[in-house]
Amino acid sequence: MKEFWTSLASLMGVFAFFQSILHAVFPPELRFAAAKIFNRVFRCFSTYCYFDITEIDGVNTNELYHAVQLYLSRSASIAASRLSLSRGLNSSAFTFGLTNNDRLVDTFRGATATWEHAVTQRQSQSFSWRPLPEEKRSFTLRIKKKDKPLILPAYLDHIMETATELRRRNQDRLLYTNSRGGSMESRGFPWESVPFKHPSTFDTLAMDPSRKELIMADLKDFAEGKAFYEKTGRAWKRGYLLYGPPGTGKSSMIAAMANYLGYDIYDLELTEVHTNSELRKLLMKTTSKSIIVIEDIDCSVNLTNRISKKSAPPSDPPSDLRPVGAAEDGAASKTITLSGLLNFTDGLWSCCGSERIFVFTTNHIEKLDPALVRSGRMDMHINMSYCSFAALKILMKNYLSVEDGEFDDANELLRELAEVIEEAEITPADVSEVLIKNRRREKSEALAELLEVLKTRVEKRKDKKQSSSEEMEEEEEQEKRALESPKESDQVMDSCNGKEEKGEEGVV
Q1: Nearest to 279 by CA among 301, 255, 262
Q2: Residues ≥6 apart with Cβ < 8 Å to 144
Q3: How many C-alpha atoms does 490 have within 13 Å on its Cβ side?
Q4: Which of 10, 159, 343, 361 could crosslink 242 through cysteines, CB 3.0-4.6 Å?
Q5: What is the pLDDT, as a whole number, of residue 307?
Q6: Residue 153, preceding bond cis, omega within 30 degrees?
Q7: Could you tell me where the Basic and acidic residues compositional bias lies (predicted)?
Q8: Up-side HSE of residue 240: CA atoms within 13 Å toward CB?
Q9: In the chain, which residues fall in CATH 3.40.50.300?
Q10: Contact by Cβ (8 Å): 223, 403
C-alpha cells in the first residue's frame, strides 16, 4: 500500500512538471485557443446540447429563470435530497428549490430534460448604477440533440404557463374596489386592493347539490375553454346573474366562485363612476382570471335612459345663444348610461382582456332592462331562492356538525323540518342566525328551536295571507257598492223629476 501512494505522488509530480513546462512554453492565448478547439470537438461528438438560463440578463431580471425555479419546485420536494425554501410576497405557500449544483430530471413529451442549478461567486464589480448580486445563479438545461426540435420551444412555453398558474395559485387572492371618483393612485392604477380572505366554498354554500354541481361544471368548462373560444371567435368571458330575495347567499356565491377558480374579485361601485370613459378605463385596468362584480345593479344608478322624453312645448328662445337642450345634455354626459354599461359587458371594450367573469346581483330582476340580462351578457341566470331542505342539511353540517346519517331519515324532527321548511319561505341567512345562537346546545335541542321558529314563521305567513285576502274582499265589496250607488241615486233623481212634471201639469 505504501508503494502505491509513493507511485501516485511521483505521477502527480511528473504531471505538475509537464504542466509548468506547458505554461512556460505556450502563451495563454494559445492555451485558450486549444481549449476552445477541444470544446468544439467534444460538442461535435457529444449527444447532448446545453442551455444556460441566468438569473440576470445584462442588467434586467430574467423572467425565465424565476419561472424555471417555480416550475422545478413541484418535483424538487420529492426528487432532490437538499432543498432551499422560500415564501413570496402575498403568498400562502412555501416554495421548494434546488440548492447549489443539485440536479433534477424532468420529462416532456417522452424526452428527458436534466436541470442543474449553479451558484458561483461573482467577481469584484466595477462602478455600476445598479449593483449586481454577489452570487451568480443560473440553471443549465441538458437535452439530447435529437430531442431539441421536439421539445423546444414548446417545453419552455409549458414552463412559463405552469409557473404562471402556480404563482397565481400560491398567491393570496385580492379584492379590488375602484378609487373614489375614478382617480389614479401613485402607480396609475384606479383600483385599491385588500387580501381576499372569504372562507365561502361550494362545499359550505347552502344550495341544492345538483344546482351547485351544474354551476361548478359551467365554471370549469369556462376556465378550460380557451381553445373553444378562440375557435368560435367569441371573447373569453362569461356572465352570471344572481337574483333573489336579500339573504339568500348571493355574496357567498361570488366568494365561492372566486375560491373555486382562484380568481381575483373587482367589486365595481357604479356610484363612484362619473362617465362612460371612466368605466372603460376601469375595465382596461383589470387583469385576466378575474371576476368583475356589480352588486344590486338595479339600485346603483338610474339606467332607465331608454324612455323617450316627451317633446317640450315651444317657448321663447333663451337670452344666450346656447341650444335649449345644452344644459340637460351636459348633465347627462357626466353620468354613465345604459349604453355605456352594455358596451362595458359585451361591447368592443369587453374584449380588451381574456378569461373574465361578469357577475351582476339584484333583488328584483324585473327592474332590469332586457338588453342587460340577455344571453351573451348574462349567460347564466341563477335564482338564489329561499332555503330548501337540502340547503338546510348543509347549514346543519356547517354550524352543528350534523353529518349525513347521524339522524335517522325516519326521525320525527327531521320529517317535520322537511315539511315546514318549504312553506316557511325563510332565507339561509335567517336559518344561519338561529343555528349560530344555538350552536353550543345539543344538536336535537338546536334543531327543535329551529323547528319552532319555522312554525312561527308559517303561522305569521298564514295570518298575513288571510288578512290580505280579507282586505281584498273588503275592497271588492266597496267597489261593488260604489258601482251600485249611482243606480240608486239615478232612481231618486227620476222620482223627483216625475213629481216636478206632475206639479207643472197641475199648474197649467
Answers
A1: 301
A2: 47, 48, 49, 111, 112
A3: 5
A4: 361
A5: 46
A6: yes
A7: 459-468, 478-490, 497-508
A8: 22
A9: 174-303+335-383
A10: no
Which stretches within 224-307 are classed as H helix? 226-232, 250-261, 276-284, 297-300
Kindly report the length of the chain. 508
Phi-psi region of 405 (alpha: psi -120 to 50; beta: other; left: phi over 0): left
Task: State the greatest distance between any 2 C-alpha atoms of the chain, in Å, as a whole number.
Answer: 172
Q: In this structure, are residues 269 and 303 in contact, taking their beta carbons and an 8 Å threshold? A: no
How far from chain centre, in Å, is Cα 214?
18
Phi, psi dihedral angles at 293 (to 5 degrees): -115, 135
CB atoms within 10 A of CB 41: 10
Q: Which of 197, 192, 188, 194 is nearest to 255 (CA)?
A: 197
Q: What is the mean pLDDT of residues 198-217?
A: 94
Quote the pLDDT of residue 313.
Answer: 46
Beta bridge partners of 144: 48
User: Which cell numbers hold the place of 133?
Assistant: 448580486
Backbone φ, ψ for residue 194 (5° rounding): -140, 155
Spatial distance between the Cα atoms of 242 and 364, rounded to a whole number of angstroms: 10
Task: Provide the grid cell at 484.
Answer: 251600485
Region 203-230: mean pLDDT is 93
DSSP state letters, 30-63 = HHHHHHHHHHHHHHHH-SEEEEEEESEETTEE-H
Asked if pLDDT for residue 5 goes beyond 80, the answer is no
pTM: 0.66
pLDDT, tens digit, for every residue of 449-472? Answer: 999 999 999 998 888 888 777 777
| CA distance linking residue 44 with residue 145, whole number of Å | 11
At the second CATH level, the architecture of 174-303+335-383 is 3-Layer(aba) Sandwich (3.40)
Cα(72)–Cα(162) distance, integer angstroms: 10
**CA 96, CA 72: separation in Å to the nearest integer?**
8
Q: Please state, in angstroms and as integers, the Cα–Cα distance from residue 220 to each residue in 168, 375, 377, 381, 383, following that order.
A: 17, 19, 19, 17, 20
Chain centroid to CA 495: how far? Answer: 80
Rounded to 10 deg, the angle between the 443-507 and 412-424 helix axes is 40
Q: How far apart are CA 284 and CA 351, in angstroms?
A: 10
Measured CA to CA, the distance from residue 50 to residue 267 in angstroms comes to 48
Using the predicted structure, report yes or no on whether residue 277 has a pLDDT greater than 80.
yes
